[in-house]
Amino acid sequence: MGTNNLRGALWISDYFPRPHDMTTGTWALESVVALRKEGLQTSVLAPTPWIPRIPGLPATFRGWSKVPKEHEINQVPVYYSRCPHYPQRWINNVLYTKVPFLDTEFLWPWCKRTADEIMKRHPFDVAHANFLFPSGYIGMKLKERFGTSLVVHERSVQRLGLARDNSRRRSVYRKILRAADLVITENMSMASELRKMEPGISELKVFKQPGSHPDLVESLIRERPERFSDRFVVLSVGALSERKGHEYLIRGIGEVRKEIPEIACRIIGAGAKREELENLIEQLGLTDAVELCGKRPHAEVLGEMSWCDVFALSSWGEAGGTVYGEAMQFGKPIIACQGEGITDIAENHVQGCMVPPRDALAVADALRWLYADVSRRNRVAESARQLAVAELGYPKLATALIELYGSLAATGSTKA
């Protein structure tokens, strides 16, 4: 259908790059860039924590306090609506989960003026809300205000779980699902749970969050550093939190170290578990085999993916996992957890190895399997590359979304 009948689209996401942190929410930025490349004028509303500019603030808070009201990233107009919304885990658990008003109705007045400004400067027919809290609620209010179609996109196993396990939150969550003209999620398991939670969903689709750039991949490749020329390099990318499974990867490296003395594991990411992981690396005598690299710019992360031998992220609670597609586009076998979102399309011993969660011995076996036979590893790598190109490309997502947006705009909002 194309973009002929669309003025534009608005993406809403509290998870989006900001000038002081360009690595958080890169998937959202890349998705919007892809939509714009396909000819659809797309702008972004990114609710942002309001932090006053007070002397002596810690560096993190200083960064948040300096986020501008609007900014342009890769030609994408982004509006950072400042509001008293602080998506930290302890705040979610103590406040937002138990008092969903603070994560929904309370925030709308802070976003309304920004939304009016966006509609004036970048008219849109469809609001695509990423996550239901708070974006889905904001999208629902935009629908009431402007008559725009509403797409809500649940991308988080954890946020879905909070709604499932808390009756107050679940009630508002279901209201947003009923208001949506289209609900999108990341995998079949989440789709089943959403349909069970709210049978009144109008339309429900599963879209894999992409990670590959078929038209750009050659330009993203970087040369392997000389110090890794004779190493078997395992790369992992993810926040240093428990569910990302870095502990089990490190322990798995320890299990195979004597068999694969040239193994080198690099873990890119920051988080609360860093000290604990550093201690584990030291205890296992792996200081010359495992390196915690901290947070890195996205382009640098992709560059490292291009020259590693294996990409490993044995995390659980992964709706999709953008990083798998990012690594596979370079022809890298993956190690992921069984039953997670990526396993809807990636198969064990076809694109990599799918292991049980929290199982260091299984990670070790996967490393052995991928290391032992170079020709087999190359076959798996090529299969991973083909899957990334066929199923996990940003252009494919953009084309599919524009088709859906156009259908919604043509028929008008199906629900008042």
Structural commentary:
Helices cover 43% and strands 16% of the residues. The chain has helices spanning 26-37, 59-65, 89-96, 108-121, 132-146, 157-165, 167-179, 188-197, 217-220, 246-256, 274-283, 298-307, 322-328, 360-372, 374-391, 394-411; strands spanning 9-12, 42-45, 48-49, 70-73, 76-79, 82-83, 126-130, 149-154, 182-185, 204-206, 232-237, 263-268, 290-294, 310-312, 334-337, 352-355. The strands form three sheets. Strands 4-5-2-1-7-8-9-10 form an eight-stranded mixed beta sheet, sandwiched between helices. A six-stranded parallel beta sheet has the order 13-12-11-14-15-16, with helices on both faces. The protein has a two-stranded parallel sheet with strand order 3-6. Helix 10 (246-256) links the parallel strand 11 and strand 12 (263-268).
Summarize the structure.
By secondary structure, this protein is α/β, with parallel strands linked by helices. It folds into two domains: 9-210 and 394-411, Glycogen Phosphorylase B (Rossmann fold); 217-391, Glycogen Phosphorylase B (Rossmann fold).
Gross CATH architecture of the largest domain: 3-Layer(aba) Sandwich
**Total number of distinct structural domains:** 2
- Major pleated sheet: 8 strands, mixed
CATH fold label of the largest domain: Rossmann fold
Overall helicity: 40-55%
| N/C terminus separation | 24 Å
Number of helices: 16
Name of the CATH superfamily of the largest domain:
Glycogen Phosphorylase B
Strand content: 15-25%
Residue runs with pLDDT of under 50 for 5 or more positions? none
3D shape: globular
> How is the largest sheet built, in terms of strand order?
4-5-2-1-7-8-9-10
Count the beta strands: 16
Structural class: alpha/beta
Name of the CATH class of the largest domain:
Alpha Beta
| Averaged pLDDT | 95
Radius of gyration, in Å, reads: 22 Å
